[in-house]
Amino acid sequence: MASGGIINQDGARRNGFAVRRWLNLAIFACAVVPAVAGLGVAPARAEYPEKIIKIVVPFAAGGGTDIIARTTAQEIQTDLGKSVIIENKPGAGTIIGTQTVATSEPDGYSLLMATFAHAVNPSLYKKLPFDPHKDFAAVSLIARSFNIVVVNPASKINSISDLIAEAKANPGKLNFGTFGTGTSAHLAGELFNAMAKVKMTAVPYKGAAPAISDLLGGQIDVMFTTVASAASLVAAGQLRALAVTSAERSAAFPQLPAVAEAGVPGYAAESWYGLYAPAKTPAPVIARLNQAIAKAVQSGAFKKLEANEGLIMVGGAPEQLDRYVGQEEERWRKLVKDANIEVQ
């Protein structure tokens, strides 16, 4: 009996140890399994976009870039399912607005409507507060365009030949309005100076709208402005168009000669509109925006701009915008140097 009692006590001890071991393992499993599961299953990422998107326009409201940006915003918000707003931040030759986006969160909610100046500013400034190559991610080249040479209807200048004759007769006295140093309106005028061998004085503004306002008021003599900013005024007879800056005539303005055929052989100047995001914006976000732009440029609103204002719609891949801007940067660097263009 004693022997049997010993066996029973030992068995009980073994059973108790087994129960405690099982309980410990159960507790450990309860603690570990959720953690392992958490590591194995990534949290669901919300689909872009979740909130309002902002497009920064580095010019005053009412100009050509503003028109393109607002048309873009209107079209892509339908596709993206979220509101897209415009924020005008003019000044310093587009640097103020551009820097705003360069220092924004790279999440796709702050975008830049870049133009001609984006490719020229590296030649104009010894030091920029951002790197136009490293601090931005290309989204899409939306459209290319030419500029249009316009004067006040009361002006005695009725043609490019008249403009050249007047400029030669009064060196430095004719003023041409620009959207700021290094913008398309500025360098198109400087290219005209160089190729026509005349000297007109550039007057910088914070955008096309205030410059055109002064042209209408007679404070300046001529502008090499974007078509988007002037087409409606030309159609209404409030501005007189002399020529287009494209290499050849445009189907949108068949009655207007190209500057090249009207007295300055070989002349051509082009403007453009491209959308950028801050560098390190996630690739899926860039792809989604690019897809929305590609769809937008096929819309009726953009088709109307294409027909009425001579825009050449693109909506290409991000890499196309990078290549195009690189070519533009190289093209205008020589003129900036030869004309000794400096930022005041």
Automatic annotation (TrEMBL):
Domain of life: Bacteria
Coiled-coil regions listed: none
Ranges annotated as spanning the membrane: 22-42
Annotated keywords: Membrane, Receptor, Transmembrane, Transmembrane helix
Stated family: Belongs to the UPF0065 (bug) family.
Name the UniProt record assigns to this protein: Tripartite-type tricarboxylate transporter, receptor component TctC
